[in-house]
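Design a sequence for this backbone.
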């Protein structure tokens, strides 16, 4: 009997040494402060399609670059929601806040918007250079008109913001600032495009 107890104890102790310790995921939110100028309202409606994420950003894990051609994923640090979903919502809200369009909403919720915004999230990285770490964001947007989807305007927006320290929280804060600049610039340019 003592032998069985000793054997069971040895198995439990060995199992504890073999298994790795559990580390829970940590979740971070973005809090861009976006300011846009009001414009004169037009008669056109604008639908925003969901921003498509490039392959590395389809996951919620934070992405980092240490070398020119190498990407990495933080195993325990994640965004609270997919960055492309957040970017889509912030862009929609900023364009609506300009007052330029009679109606602004998600394209799939609108019958036939006069204009449609499409886009791709191309970068949403923490760049770890030897000098300083930065948040790097790049988004391509296009404005298309009518059922024919005629291209009216397109632009690639890019912003970098240095991190205050080398931490996931500082990355979220820096990315919030970079994203705010892009959203403000994009909403302003879209609102200034001549439309009915």
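Sequence:
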């Amino acid at each position: 009997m003592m032998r069985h107890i000793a054997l069971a104890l040895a198995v439990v102790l060995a199992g504890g040494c073999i298994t790795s310790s559990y580390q829970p995921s940590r979740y971070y939110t973005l809090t861009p402060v976006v300011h846009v100028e009001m414009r004169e309202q037009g008669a056109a409606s604008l639908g925003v399609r969901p921003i498509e994420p490039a392959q590395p950003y389809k996951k919620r894990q934070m992405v980092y670059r240490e070398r020119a051609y190498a990407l990495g994923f933080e195993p325990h640090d994640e965004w609270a929601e997919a960055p492309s979903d957040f970017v889509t919502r912030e862009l929609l809200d900023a364009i609506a806040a300009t007052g330029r369009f009679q109606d602004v909403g998600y394209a799939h919720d609108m019958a036939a918007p006069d204009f449609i915004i499409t886009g791709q999230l191309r970068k949403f990285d923490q760049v770890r250079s030897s000098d300083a770490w930065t948040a790097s964001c790049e988004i391509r947007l296009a404005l298309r008109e009518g059922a024919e989807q005629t291209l009216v305007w397109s632009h690639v927006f890019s912003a970098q913001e240095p991190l205050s320290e080398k931490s996931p929280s500082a990355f979220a804060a820096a990315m919030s600032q970079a994203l705010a600049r892009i959203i403000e610039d994009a909403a302003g340019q879209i609102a200034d495009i001549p439309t009915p």
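The chain has a mean pLDDT of 91.
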